[in-house]
Amino acid sequence: MTQVQVAYAACVTHDSAPQPRRPTGPPRLAPLCLSGQLVFMSIRIQHHDSPFGKWLMAHWSPVQLSAVLDQLWYFEGTVAVPRERVFPDGRVDLIVHLGPVYRQVTGERTDPFSISCISGLLLTSNVVEAPPDACAVLGLRLRPAGAFALLARALPELVGITVDLGAVLGNAADELAARCYDARQPGACGSSEPANDLFDVVAHCRAEARLRAAAEWVDERCRQHAPDPAVAWAAQEIERHAGALSIAALRERTGWSKTRFTATFQQQVGVPPKVFARIHRFRHALQLLHAGDTPLARVALRSGYYDQSHFNAEFRELSGFAPGEFLAARRYPGSGSIAEDSI
User: Fold this and answer.
1) What is the crossing angle of helices 171-182 and 198-221, to 10°?
2) SS3 string of 89-113?
3) Is the pLDDT of residue 32 over 60?
4) Of 208, 184, 199, which is closest to residue 58 (Cα–Cα)?
5) Same domain, yes or no: 84 and 211
6) Domain residues for 304?
7) 204 in the same domain as 330
8) Angle at 25 between CA 24 and CA 26, to 5 degrees
9) What is the rounded average pLDDT of the residues 326-338?
10) Sheet strands (E) in 26-169
């Protein structure tokens, strides 16, 4: 449901890579959550009105949670083109519906998502369907290390599926939904975007309050657990290099054996390191294609593929169709996802 995931907050990470010959073992990273009150930095709010629909999108980047969250977003409005194909991007998505729910599309069948749900790493594209009426959805796009910290459980069991958040977190899932639904913004809103009328002012304040409530919930939970620093660092490096790096060299810098590194990484990220790198190569290629100003051969080269045929095969396996078909499809504004009816 990426048009409700277009909020892409810049995240501050700490690249604390160790020296290659340093005998002290895995690298050290800053804590996932920092002590102190969350800094309520300016929330960016955008309004969209086109044949795709009419909505408000808000996104926020709490610096203290940058190691956990890739983005924290809030969507409110109506979608006119309901079916949307979304792609693997190396993230774990936690979704809270604050009104009518989206549905998962599988062939001719559609099934409603839970009010609060979590989607593990995608290995292929999925299709989701927006409700026909106005809806409000809040989401947390988690880095794998952040997801492991929040869930305190192995991530492979969530790969490629979406499950009820309550089945994973119990009462904490209901608490998150209740906090977000009931959230009220004290005092004046802090959005950097001007509101056009009273309705916009109310919507802006509601968006800010719900984002703050979600961030506070994350801040409380991520203090309870932490991933292995070596795994968090390795995942960060793979993402930073868009998957174009040597996994063997990465593993050597942790000081771990191949077996230990692969097994621990998969437990805490969800997939082996090479698969995670593959997802991020694809993600980078998708971003270049979406920008629309890079020839396909150049996209393949810049994304770390051996040649054009390798790129075409990988792209088709992860997306379901060829790069040219992606370029020809209608894409949601500000998003890499495409309208399913345009394929």
Assistant:
1) 150
2) CCCEEEEEECCCCCEEEECCEEEEC
3) no
4) 208
5) yes
6) 229-342
7) no
8) 130
9) 86
10) 44-50, 53-60, 69-79, 83-86, 92-97, 103-106, 109-112, 116-119, 126-129, 135-142, 162-164
Instruction: In whole angstroms, give the CA distance from residue 101 to residue 1.
Output: 11
Residue carrying the six token digits 């345009």:
342
Chain centre to alpha carbon of residue 175? 21
The residue with tokens 């979600």 is 214
pLDDT computed for residue 210 by the predictor: 96
| Vertex 223 angle, CA 207 and 154, to 5° | 95
Query: Count of alpha carbons within 13 Å of 28, Cβ hemisphere only?
Result: 3
Q: Are residues 105 and 234 in the same domain?
A: no
SS3 content of the chain, % helix, strand, coil (to 5): 40, 20, 40
Beta strands across the sheet bearing 338-339: 109-112, 103-106, 126-129, 83-86, 338-339
Number of domains in the chain: 2
Q: Mean pLDDT over all residues of the chain?
A: 85
CA torsion angle for 64, 210, 332, 194 (degrees, to 10)? -90
Claim: this prediction has a pTM higher than 0.90: no
